[in-house]
Amino acid sequence: GNTDGTWGSAPAGFPFTLNADGSGIKLVPTSAGKIVVIYNTTSGSTRVRVRRYSGSWSAELSSAYSPLSIAVIKQSADDNVEILYMQVTTRNVYHATYTDSSNTLSAEVLVDTLSNTSSLFVLCRDGSDIRMIFAYSGTSLNLYHRILTNGSWGSPILWLDTVDSLEPSALSSIIDSGSGVTAVLYEHDFGQ
Prior knowledge:
The protein is mainly β. 0% of the residues lie in helices and 50% in strands. It is globular, with a radius of gyration of 18 Å.
């Protein structure tokens, strides 16, 4: 239980209950033994929630909308964390930034309107760029990406046209090998 990746006794502040009904937990290790925890709640005021551990637990921060799914990635230059989530009722995808130095969560910005309920998305790093890769189904399953530059998301760029009418059942994490090669795994649910 140390915060530096080694085994030992639990540091002060552990065990800790994030929220009585928290789920979908994402852990983002940052510098100097800090951990940023992103999660959502399943009852009451359902929101994306953020807490930081840096020797003690910060106050809980929360988003404006209810999440269906969440993707997170740490910025390379600092301990800030980019958060994308799909809103439950509209299926719109929103972006917010957790800023470590001030322990704040920015206001959400609309990134995309993926109204298809089977639309999936993940985040990856390509050098200094952060990319959102997403599957969107129309008449065929296509993979698109958007690039985050200076806090703004670029237009969708068609990355892969599979010419496939099957809906994706999963879009797996992105693998960034550090050599400029990025891989995306997606799978179909062929049913019975």
